[in-house]
Every structure is written in structure tokens, then in C-alpha cells.
Write a structure and sequence with these properties.
about 270 residues; mainly alpha; 11 helices
Length: about 270
């Protein structure tokens, strides 16, 4: 399988994109916003700043994953680069897997740099805070949150590649990716509300449960409360089950992407 040349080309291309530096710069600006918001809230200002900072971190990685995965694939097609790549001894499935691997490397680097910026910002805000009882910032917990955010970015990138090979309109693919992400974030609360309500019919409850397990659930990767609230402890079984869910779902999405792209006319 000749996936590495495509992965290297994709990774280098994404590092040159303005969105990479632009979103990182925007993240620094959002850290200042988090600090300003925490100043007008009564109570533990560090906890509030951490909550907003990690939320911005989560959504920034999500946006980068969507734009990089969809934009890179569509750019190859629109700029006719895909024909040059496929003229080499590279099969279509190699292209899809290589493209995905290059995007994962870029998302990983973006997540690492974001982690460094956000953690530095949180530690600075914590040192500048004047609290009667100082809020303890455990960097190891932020590392765990960042790993889950990286998994979310990879998960979303797999769907980005799928949408890019399925749709012929880049704008439609991007809006579909954003819609998929936002719906996937709200699955857990909707399921809890519907299943616990006595006014919802058993059939509708069953439908919601089926959708909950089949639709990509991005809320599983949002564990920022684990870093913000030190009293929260997440069992190891949760990490293991989410990882298995992540691996199986990504593999299935890539298989579907390969199947569609292999039969698509360019």
C-alpha cells in the first residue's frame, strides 16, 4: 500500500494553509475572552476560565478537522492534483487512506500546539488569580482531555473525508460536517430526556435509542469537566469503551469512503 507519499503530501500541504495559523491565533484571542468572562463571574474565576478555555479548545479542533479534511480533498480534485497522484502506482484506496493519515498528522500537531497554548493560558490565569482558596490545576487531567479532543478531531476528519468523496459541492460538504458535529454533540442529553419522559411512546423511545447508537456521538469525547472539577473521576472502563467505539467507527467510515471513492467518476 502506497499511503505514505499521499500522507506526506497532505501533511505538508495542510501546514501551509492559513487556517492552521489562523485558528491557533484565534485560540489565543479566545483565551483572553475566557479571562475577561471569568472576571465578571462571582466565585472561582480560574474554574470558569478553564471551562471556557477547554470549550474553545474543543470547538477549535473540531473546526480545523472539518475544514482541513474536506478542503484538502476537494482541493486535490479541483486543482487536478488527484489525476497526477493516481497516475502513479497508487490505488484509489491508497489515496483515501493516505489522505486520512496526513490529515490525522496535521490534526495531531494542531491539537498539541493548542494544548500548549491553552495549558499555558490556564496556568498564567491561575497564577494571576486572587482567590482565598486557590484552584488547583492538574496538568495531567488537561492532557487526558486533550487526548480525547484529538480522538474527536480524528473521528470528525474521517467523516470529513467521507463527505468530501460523497458530495460534489464543497460548501454542502462543509455544512453537512458542521451539522453532523453539532447533532452528535446533543445526542446524549436528547436521549436522556426522551427515555426518561413518560409522555413519549415506546416506539419513539426505541427510535431515539437506535439513532443514539448508530449516529456518531461526539459528546463522548467532551470530558472537560474532568479537568475543571477535581471531584469528578472517570472509570477506566469508560476510556476503554470510548476508544473501542472510536476505532470501530473510524474503520467503518473509512471503509465506506474507500468504497464510494473507488466507484466515483473524477
Amino acid at each position: 500500500m502506497n499511503v505514505l507519499p499521499v500522507a506526506r503530501l497532505t501533511f505538508k500541504e495542510l501546514l501551509k494553509e492559513k487556517s492552521f495559523i489562523g485558528l491557533l491565533t484565534g485560540e489565543v484571542f479566545l483565551l483572553f475572552i475566557s479571562k475577561l468572562i471569568s472576571n465578571v463571574v462571582a466565585g472561582d474565576t480560574v474554574k470558569v476560565a478553564m471551562d471556557f478555555s477547554l470549550t474553545f479548545f474543543f470547538f477549535t479542533v473540531a473546526l480545523y478537522s472539518i475544514f482541513s479534511s474536506i478542503g484538502s480533498t476537494f482541493r486535490d480534485i479541483s486543482d487536478k492534483v488527484i489525476y497526477l497522484i493516481l497516475s502513479k502506482p497508487i490505488r484509489r484506496e491508497d489515496y483515501v487512506l493516505g489522505k486520512f493519515l496526513g490529515i490525522v498528522l496535521a490534526v495531531g500537531l494542531f491539537t498539541f500546539l493548542s494544548f500548549f497554548l491553552v495549558t499555558s493560558g490556564i496556568l498564567i490565569m491561575s497564577s494571576l488569580a486572587h482567590l482565598y482558596v486557590p484552584h488547583i490545576v492538574i496538568v495531567e487531567r488537561i492532557v487526558v482531555v486533550s487526548i480525547f479532543i484529538f480522538f474527536m478531531g480524528v473521528f470528525l476528519s474521517a467523516f470529513g473525508v467521507l463527505l468530501a468523496v460523497f458530495f460534489t459541492s464543497q460548501i454542502l460538504a462543509i455544512f453537512s460536517g458542521i451539522f453532523l458535529f453539532l447533532v452528535g454533540l446533543e445526542l446524549s442529553p436528547v436521549k436522556e430526556i426522551v427515555t426518561s419522559s413518560k409522555y413519549v411512546s415506546p416506539l419513539n423511545k426505541l427510535i431515539v435509542q437506535v439513532v443514539y447508537y448508530l449516529f456518531p456521538n461526539f459528546s463522548l469525547f467532551d470530558i472537560k469537566d474532568y479537568a475543571v472539577h477535581l471531584a469528578i473521576h472517570i472509570p477506566l472502563t469508560y476510556f476503554f469503551l470510548v476508544f473501542v467505539y472510536f476505532i470501530l467507527y473510524v474503520a467503518a467510515v473509512l471503509a465506506v469512503s474507500t468504497f464510494i471513492f473507488d466507484r466515483r467518476e473524477l
